[in-house]
């Protein structure tokens, strides 16, 4: 009956409306007066019609008004993805039609603030920061104190959510003594400031909070709860929590905030070992988010949506399980929700931050399986653990690799082409934004770039949804243990994959014979062994000044990392992780030694060919090769400067002798020349300077009078078999769990390089030149990059013209090869093969001719007379 009345009212209103603009406002007001799922459905149908008809700016503004109210309703009813989509459409409509010139409609209050909050709720922190900073800038421009403060509060909430408490303190402290703030805003800023101090252990007692601060009773007791929780006083924390609850009007809380409150209570119960209370609290939290669900045990993936509170609930519930399968099933639900969230993200930065939580969860899953395996040995369990280790290995690189494979398969697909163009634009804009922020440019320039990034992100999300519908097979492929073992058998190889956790390093060793899992206790002593070994390569003198210290450390670490188990194999695929990414495994020693002669030391390189990879999935990946072996060489040289690389001329000459190549030297080795020519070559060689970056700047590589930063490198589109980075620290950068080092090498992998040879530290110009000359001499003969890299190191150690000091692993083990394992193809063997085939064909022809002649003779004598 209500529905009939609503339809009658709407028809009546529409009949007396004079134009489309009024129709839109009437439809919106009708919805506002009676909000429910039925009226939402009706409004959505009308919206679809209005969007087709709207042409004038006033009609577009009316549509923005409709969409903002619709978005608010969707948000309140936990339809977060749909709410984000509608607010994004409203914002795009407002900007495209320049509606700020038409009306003083408060786009900040109606759209930007709720959109920024939604991004934060769904973990899209990059877009959240961009949007919030945009409306803070607009508010400052219009001297709108209320919106400026709202922006500051929401930015502080965002930074608090991501654990950036120092940033929250700096942000809120500047507002504590500001005038013209209303009471509610003042309380929010004060509370955020206090909570950050508590998190940083700057406040350890309620009495440390100044009494002059005007705070609510709820906040006072909540602060006490947080302090007691931080100090591990769980009984006192529970008391404070229960008192704080009495000051909450639950009916005034959104479903999400109420669910988080129940979760906090469950978490506290778990800490107090009240497991039944913890389960009850989690059930309440889940039922608040999903009113139709009876209990957590009846949950189905189809009921879930992109909401990070689910992850917290399932993670805690997993810890309450006694059965390992049940525990894993709840962690799997967390992974599922994490993927739902990530499906709405477009920035690398955001995806990287998500990996940290997923990695902690993966470690717990691996540990559960490891403990179960001790009671029930079963290789299937070990492979399941291995899959958890692989789950968050280089996820961004895998995703980008799949995009490139799909585009190469369907090169004329308009959706894929648009996506590739936007991804390139996103990275270029990100690079510009980073540079502008470093240069302390005007706020208007930075805001404009942030706005551009947000618009690109919205377009990418729309495209992604369309592409996923068109190509449902797109996704990170799973592989079977049989596939891996068959390839290892063919390659005469063993695979050693590490998972560098918080408490342990897990090591998987897989061969055609089976799978093994070991747990290495990551105690302070182990951490020190790893760190100290890496620092042995800080400068050339460290090893040579104390050779015995090096040999002891190299053999000790060899044992810690359980590498003796792989010695029977000709080739070893190493998948490092965490700090292990910076270890040159070839320079470890397989046995004790007292010799100071480096060429006689039992280095791993003497025993095995080491090939690295970022993930087993990349080892298994079948690449479509660019069969040409033409090489592009970039050699800035930097002559007559303090950064001169005079020996790189020798590299260039060696390459010219061995390879079909195009070389750009000195002032020709510009960034522009590299960008223009790089897509046309199967091999790229860069002999230059590079840096791993620092806290404020990303990894970068030098060209003649110009620098290329990491995000600009991401924007390239390469179809390159091999990239050789004959430069310092090209494999070093900020380390992210799951994704590895944000290095120049990773930039080339993201851009499309299938195989990369790069360095782990600042390398010597002369020894680099010698290694590279040997590498290309071998490569021109065997066409195998991994074999050539291995052989170049052996050649260097055997070279009698090189002094013992210069044979320190500092000089030869910096270069590591990441990519496919290819068997050498000798040119001389090919010649002999062709000669043999030619001789065989001649003999075959002669035999056939003799047989034919003999056959004719028999036919003649057999004819009757």
Automatic annotation (TrEMBL):
Keywords of this protein's UniProt record, alphabetized?
A: Membrane, Transmembrane, Transmembrane helix
- Pfam families from the UniProt entry: CHAT (PF12770)
* InterPro entries, per database record: CHAT_dom, TPR-like_helical_dom_sf
Transmembrane portions of the chain: 830-848
User: Could you tell me which residue ranges the CHAT domain spans?
Assistant: 567-820
Protein's name in the database: CHAT domain-containing protein
What does the organism's lineage look like at the top? Answer: Bacteria, Pseudomonadati, Bacteroidota, Flavobacteriia, Flavobacteriales
């Amino acid at each position: 009956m209500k529905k009939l009345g609503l339809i009658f009212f709407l028809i009546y209103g529409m009949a007396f409306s004079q134009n489309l603009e009024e129709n839109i406002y009437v439809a919106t007001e009708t919805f506002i007066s009676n909000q429910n799922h039925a009226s939402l459905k009706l409004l959505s149908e009308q919206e679809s019609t209005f969007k087709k008809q709207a042409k004038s700016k006033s009609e577009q503004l009316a549509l923005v008004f409709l969409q903002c109210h619709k978005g608010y309703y969707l948000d309140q009813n936990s339809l977060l993805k749909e709410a984000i989509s509608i607010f994004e459409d409203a914002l795009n409509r407002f900007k495209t039609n320049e509606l700020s010139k038409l009306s003083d409609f408060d786009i900040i209050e109606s759209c930007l603030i709720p959109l920024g909050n939604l991004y934060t709720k769904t973990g899209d922190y990059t877009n959240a920061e961009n949007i919030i900073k945009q409306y803070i800038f607009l508010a400052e421009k219009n001297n709108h104190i209320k919106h400026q403060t709202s922006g500051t509060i929401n930015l502080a909430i965002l930074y608090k959510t991501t654990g950036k408490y120092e940033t929250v303190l700096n942000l809120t402290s500047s507002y504590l003594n500001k005038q013209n703030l209303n009471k509610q805003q003042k309380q929010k800023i004060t509370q955020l400031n206090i909570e950050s101090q508590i998190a940083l252990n700057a406040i350890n007692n309620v009495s440390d909070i100044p009494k002059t601060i005007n705070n609510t009773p709820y906040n006072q007791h909540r602060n006490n709860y947080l302090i007691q929780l931080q100090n591990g006083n769980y009984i006192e924390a529970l008391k404070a929590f229960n008192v704080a609850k009495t000051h909450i009007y639950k009916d005034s809380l959104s479903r999400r905030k109420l669910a988080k409150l129940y979760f906090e209570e469950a978490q506290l119960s778990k800490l107090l070992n009240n497991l039944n209370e913890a389960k009850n609290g989690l059930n309440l939290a889940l039922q608040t988010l999903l009113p139709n669900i009876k209990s957590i045990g009846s949950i189905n993936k189809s009921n879930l949506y992109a909401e990070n509170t689910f992850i917290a609930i399932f993670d805690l519930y997993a810890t309450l399980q006694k059965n390992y399968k049940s525990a894993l099933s709840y962690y799997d639900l967390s992974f599922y929700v994490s993927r739902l969230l990530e499906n709405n993200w477009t920035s690398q930065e955001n995806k990287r931050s998500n990996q940290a939580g997923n990695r902690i969860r993966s470690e717990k899953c691996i540990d559960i399986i490891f403990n179960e395996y001790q009671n029930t040995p079963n290789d299937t369990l070990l492979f399941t653990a291995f899959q958890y280790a692989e789950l968050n290995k280089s996820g961004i690189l895998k995703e980008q690799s799949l995009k490139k494979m799909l585009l190469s398969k369907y090169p004329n697909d308009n959706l894929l082409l648009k996506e590739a163009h936007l991804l390139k634009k996103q990275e270029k804009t990100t690079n510009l934004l980073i540079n502008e922020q470093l240069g302390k440019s005007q706020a208007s320039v930075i805001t404009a770039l942030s706005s551009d990034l947000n618009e690109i992100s919205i377009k990418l999300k729309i495209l992604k949804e369309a592409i996923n519908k068109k190509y449902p097979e797109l996704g990170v492929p799973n592989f079977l243990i049989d596939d891996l073992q068959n390839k290892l058998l063919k390659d005469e190889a063993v695979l050693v994959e590490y998972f560098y956790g918080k408490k342990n390093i897990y090591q998987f060793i897989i061969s055609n014979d089976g799978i093994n899992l070991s747990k290495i206790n990551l105690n302070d002593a182990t951490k020190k062994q790893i760190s100290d070994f890496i620092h042995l390569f800080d400068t050339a003198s460290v090893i040579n000044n104390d050779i015995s210290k090096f040999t002891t450390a190299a053999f000790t670490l060899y044992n810690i990392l359980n590498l003796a188990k792989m010695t029977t194999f000709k080739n070893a695929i190493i998948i490092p992780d965490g700090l292990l990414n910076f270890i040159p495994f070839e320079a470890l020693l397989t046995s004790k030694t007292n010799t100071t002669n480096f060429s006689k030391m039992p280095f791993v390189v003497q025993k095995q060919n080491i090939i690295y990879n970022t993930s087993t999935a990349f080892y298994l990946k079948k690449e479509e090769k660019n069969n040409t072996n033409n090489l592009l060489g970039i050699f800035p040289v930097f002559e007559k400067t303090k950064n001169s690389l005079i020996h790189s001329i020798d590299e260039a000459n060696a390459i010219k002798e061995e390879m079909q190549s195009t070389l750009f030297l000195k002032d020709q080795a510009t960034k522009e020349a590299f960008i223009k020519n790089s897509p046309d070559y199967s091999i790229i060689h860069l002999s230059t300077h590079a840096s791993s970056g620092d806290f404020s700047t990303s990894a970068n590589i030098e060209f003649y009078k110009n620098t290329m930063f990491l995000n600009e490198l991401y924007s390239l589109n390469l179809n390159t078999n091999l990239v050789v980075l004959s430069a310092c620290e090209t494999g070093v950068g900020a380390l992210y769990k799951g994704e590895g080092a944000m290095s120049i090498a990773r930039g080339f992998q993201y851009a499309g390089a299938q195989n990369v040879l790069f360095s782990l530290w600042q390398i010597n110009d002369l020894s680099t030149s010698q290694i590279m000359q040997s590498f290309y001499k071998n490569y021109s003969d065997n066409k195998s990059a991994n074999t050539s890299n291995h052989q170049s190191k052996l050649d260097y150690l055997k070279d009698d013209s090189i002094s013992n000091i210069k044979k320190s692993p500092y000089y030869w083990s910096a270069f590591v090869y990441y990519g496919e394992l290819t068997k050498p193809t000798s040119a001389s063997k090919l010649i002999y093969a062709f000669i043999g085939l030619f001789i065989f064909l001649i003999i075959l022809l002669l035999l056939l001719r003799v047989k034919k002649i003999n056959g004719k003779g028999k036919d003649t004598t057999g004819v009757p007379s």
